[in-house]
Amino acid sequence: MAQAIVVRELGGPEVLKMEGVTLAAPGPGEVQIRQVAIGLNFIDVYFRTGLYKSATGLPFIPGKEGAGVVTAVGDGVSMFSVGDRVAYASADGAYASERNVDASQLLKVPEGISLETAAAMMLKGMTAQYLLNQTFKVGPETTLLFHAAAGGVGFIAGQWAKALGATVIGTAGSQEKIDLALAHGYDHVINYRTDNFVERVKDLTGGRGVDVVYDSVGRDTYPASLDCLKPRGLWASFGNSSGPVDAFNIGILAQKGALYATRPTLFTYVATRPALEACANSLFDVVQSNKVRININQTYPLAEAGRAHTDLETRKTSGTTLLIP
């Protein structure tokens, strides 16, 4: 019998409880995998609390990202075989020791990339890929601000943006996290707890502001993020770890310099198989070239998912965290 974290009521980390679950044979178009590692992401918290709604309602198994080995394939599956090493970033139900996944969501993991690394990088890495290469095309002329620089996406984005030639500014909440971010591509990192990050950004850019702000924090950084932008700059709000931005007034974009704003999601950017493969292959290439390294800073047994969520929400973690079945 497979083991899984099952959410039967919305709430705090205490609702994450391990249960034995019966796993059916993979259906048509499905692949069954034995999972080696599962990625922990802030979006998992949003589903646990009810900020985002599970498509299946209650109860549900949380999680989006994982990697493992194919143990069975359903009818009509030709892309994968038993024994293949695979990973995914957008398939609900990741918090399990074994599971079935729609084959269209899976990707083969290249040789030279471990399954643990794959589980640590698929959602975060593909998020960094679309933000830096599609939402706003970053290059040598770009100056950017990335909030939560010492987070899982932040570590990858800092290195990748630096490899693209950008000037990379980040924010973090402690000297330890500042030092970590500086070691992952950032040119400057601002302590948002002690410094006014708007003033520091203006100082660092000679008063001009940045071309783009990547903001996964939400309520606590809005509308200050807009004040960091140069005229006609882009605010990319791709998360809300501090809470959602409420009652967004589009007129504020005109007041602050004819700004642009977007609310992108990975799941839109990889909605087709060609788009998914292109995004993943771009990530695999940058990791295999050693331009971006994936550091796994914390691991927890799957049974302790509640403790992992607590540490994530209280900002005790940095970089990437894995759950191990």
UniProtKB/TrEMBL annotation:
InterPro entries: ADH-like_C, ADH-like_N, ER, GroES-like_sf, NAD(P)-bd_dom_sf, QOR-like. SUPFAM superfamilies: GroES-like, NAD(P)-binding Rossmann-fold domains. GO terms for molecular function: mRNA 3'-UTR AU-rich region binding; NADPH binding; quinone reductase (NADPH) activity. Keywords: NADP, Oxidoreductase. SMART domains: PKS_ER. CDD domains: QOR2. The keyword Oxidoreductase applies. GO terms for cellular component: cytosol. The keyword Oxidoreductase applies. It is an enzyme of class 1 (oxidoreductase). PANTHER family: QUINONE OXIDOREDUCTASE PIG3-RELATED (PTHR48106), QUINONE OXIDOREDUCTASE-RELATED (PTHR48106:SF13). NCBIfam families: PRK10754.1 (NF008024). This is Probable quinone oxidoreductase. It comes from Rhizobium meliloti (strain 1021) (Ensifer meliloti).
